[in-house]
Request: fold
Amino acid sequence: MTVNLYKRVGVIAAFLLVFSAVGLYLHTRQDAMSEKVMMYYGDWSPEENRFDATKWFRNDLYRRDVAEGKASAVTMLRNRPLPFKSSDNDEVVAAAIVALEAADAAVNGDSLGNTWPMLIPRIRYRYSAFAAPDKPQDYYNIYLKYQGERYVITFARDGQTGEIIPEGNVQLMYPDSDTQIADREVFKELDAAGIP
Reply:
């Protein structure tokens, strides 16, 4: 009889504990989401180009990025970045060629265009930002080994349609650069996995 009583009390206590934890979580989340999230958009300007981006965080598509211990008003993180399919590779290679040639006239993308490598496994999500009010863009890096050099090519995708935006930023990797430590780690991971 006492074993049954202890079992019931234990079940009731566990139920109350779980119920309380869920209630506290929902209450905290509702308080956090009741605040307006004002985000910058577009290129930097002296004007305060901000808009109410709260809906993008309420629908759990994005979460706030933290920079220097504070929630960023410029960048955010996508909870589930859009996946790339094998069929996206042609656009990714074309974007890489355009970005490489635009960054350095001495770099010729013909060799990349001739070999047309599979770059999808070399892509990593980086961050997201708004190009205009309610127009999120997700930024990705391609970690490319090309003509004896290592490059990090950052390009954007429309955050709603997934369309690749054909312009990018290119960084040449330097072996001793303190600002490229995280990127060197990604290259090491790709090399260790044998991804060409």
Notes: The first helix runs from residue 2 to 34. The mean pLDDT is 85. The beta strands are 38-40, 50-52, 62-67, 70-78, 123-132, 135-146, 149-158, 164-172. The chain has five helices and eight strands.
